[in-house]
Amino acid sequence: MATAYNEGSVVRLTATFRDASAVLANPTTVTLRVRDATPATTSYTFAAAQLINPSTGIFYRDVTVSTPGQWYFWFIGATGVTAADGGEFVVTAAKVT
Questions:
Q1: Per-residue pLDDT for 7 more than 70?
Q2: Cβ of 91: how many Cβ atoms within 10 Å?
Q3: Exposed e or buried b for every residue in 32-66, given b needs 16+ CB within 10 A?
Q4: DSSP classification of residue 57
Q5: How many CB atoms lie within 10 A of CB 13?
Q6: What Cα–Cα distance (Å) separates residue 38 from each residue in 32, 41, 66?
Q7: What is the rounded distance in angstroms from the CA atom of residue 37 to the CA atom of residue 16?
Q8: What are the pLDDT digits (tens) for 60-69?
């Protein structure tokens, strides 16, 4: 079952990248694609300073979830370390507005 968040929450989307030896490593390019419940897709890139890289192999972005329903995200790393990491979660509608 997917993790559930309340509408309006800030959700940290995180990816971990490892090289062929299973050692944490940074890809040269990293892209995050987030598909919300509408279903609109938004892309973020490390090159445009839209993703945070706090340590080797770890990338994240905080996303405010504003649309109730099923959300999906996918990080794609390329050049040097080619890998992908992602997941899904549910946003529940606010009970009081």
A1: yes
A2: 22
A3: bebebeeeeeeebebeeeebeeeeebebbbebebe
A4: T
A5: 21
A6: 18, 9, 10
A7: 25
A8: 999 999 999 9
